[in-house]
Write a structure and sequence with these properties.
There is one protein chain. By secondary structure, this protein is of the alpha/beta class. The chain has two domains: 2-128 and 327-355, 2-Layer Sandwich (Nucleotidyltransferase, domain 5); 147-325, ATPase, nucleotide binding domain (Nucleotidyltransferase, domain 5), CATH 3.30.420. 45% of the residues lie in helices and 19% in strands. Strand 2 (12-21) and strand 3 (24-34) form a beta hairpin. The protein starts with a strand and ends in an 18-residue tail after the last helix. The model is unreliable at 127-135 (pLDDT under 50). Bound molecules: 5'-O-[(R)-(carboxyoxy)(hydroxy)phosphoryl]adenosine and zinc ion. Zinc ion binds next to helix 4.
């Protein structure tokens, strides 16, 4: 089976082609056209601009994707497209483009939830080392018994520029939201703090770079920032207070200090650690409460090295399995959408193209 997938949920125009044979997944092509330079001057994504860029980029990215994979169009079996959650004008460009292709090429189309795609990005690394799986039928694949006993129940933490959610996962397609952010997403907090500190966009990698430099000194940060909601016995998050604390700390420093490299590196390290502390504390609370066998991470913020490292330490301590996608599959991409599209297809979720609609607030 060959799946062509499209994602335009935020500021990246993504198209990928995934081949599935004997339960082995091969990414034939995975193109991401980033709009970072365009949105950098606004310090965040500007939806109408992003929509215009998606419209311009989609045909170009499609051409590149098809050229790289070079499967004739006749070989493509299914089109998968992200319908939400995300920025509504952006989502519509991808969905309308997918619908046009579906009609033109006479291919079935399937809708995908962007959050589920971030979770299933972890399945892009070969899942089927077990040769016995070759003869499984679709129902058995969905049950994935060969992995389920070791993996589920699992707690998934999806952290990106638009989302921060903790999800209890009992199997592919079986999800329950435990908690989410009440205001800013974790990635948004990185982006806004970086803007305050004059570090540019996207803020996550910029803060990480500064924080790494601070670590070289081997010092503990003297700047103390809050860890919002860390002690509350729930699974919700709040990051806007942290951003405000960064703003006040910054504003209250003499100009000379604000401009010093050392201070920027120090507050960047503390911001990063405050976000990681809260994410780890809430995830571990869910591990304990639901006795999960694993932690599954996903979303752009998971590209952060310090976060990956600290989750690894904790997962070893708590003796739970940790699934972390390679960095290129943490940030937005369409390979993960193809993967989610495949599982939706197995579940028989195919719809007629007329019935595919965007839902910017789609829940998993
Ligand atoms: O998943 P993603 O590509 O798009 C959304 O669905 O939002 O996530 C983008 C977010 C941005 O906020 C960016 O600052 C953050 O992920 N990010 C990082 C890192 N790389 C990207 N945050 C922390 N550390 C990083 N290395
Ligand atoms: Zn995303």
């Amino acid at each position: 089976m060959i799946i062509l997938a499209i994602d335009t949920s935020c500021d990246d125009t993504c198209i990928a082609i995934l081949k599935i044979k004997d339960l082995k997944f091969k990414i034939l092509s995975n193109i991401v056209s980033s709009q970072v330079k365009i949105h950098a001057k606004y310090g965040g994504v500007y939806p109408t601009l992003a929509k215009r860029e998606h419209q311009r980029n989609l045909p170009i990215v499609l051409k590149k994707t098809l050229k790289k994979a070079s499967p004739p169009i006749s070989k493509i079996d299914l089109i998968a497209v992200t319908v939400g959650p995300g920025l509504e004008p952006c989502l519509w460009t991808g969905v309308n483009f997918a619908k046009d292709l579906s009609q033109k090429w006479k291919k079935p189309i399937i809708s995908v939830n962007h959050i589920e795609a971030h979770i299933l990005a972890n399945w892009l690394s070969p899942i089927c080392k077990n040769s016995k799986t070759k003869t499984l039928n679709s129902k058995q694949i969905l049950n994935l018994k060969f992995q389920n006993s070791k993996l589920f129940p699992s707690v998934c933490l999806i952290v990106s520029g638009g989302h921060t959610q903790l999800i209890l996962m009992r199997g592919i397609g079986n999800y329950k939201i435990l908690g989410e952010t009440r205001d800013d997403a974790a990635g948004e907090c990185f982006d806004k703090c970086a803007r305050i500190l004059g570090l540019g966009y996207p803020g996550g990698p910029a803060i990480e770079k500064q924080a790494e430099k601070f670590k070289v000194y081997g010092l503990r940060s003297k700047v103390r920032l809050p860890r919002p909601m860390i002690h509350q016995k729930n699974f919700d998050f709040s990051f806007s207070g942290l951003k405000t604390a960064v703003l006040y700390d910054f504003k209250n420093r003499p100009v000379k200090v604000r401009k010093s490299k050392k201070y920027v590196q120090e507050i960047a390290a503390e911001t990063q650690q405050a976000i990681i502390d809260v994410l780890i504390a809430k995830t571990l609370r869910a591990v304990k409460e639901f006795k999960t066998k694993s932690i599954i991470l996903g979303g752009g913020v998971v590209a952060n090295n310090e976060l990956r490292k600290q989750f690894k330490v904790q997962s070893l301590k708590f003796k739970v399995k940790l699934l972390v996608p390679p960095k290129i599959f943490c940030t937005d991409n369409a390979a993960m959408v193809a993967m989610a599209g495949y599982f939706n297809y197995l579940k028989g979720k195919r719809k007629n193209w007329e019935n595919i609609k965007v839902n910017a607030n789609l829940k998993i």
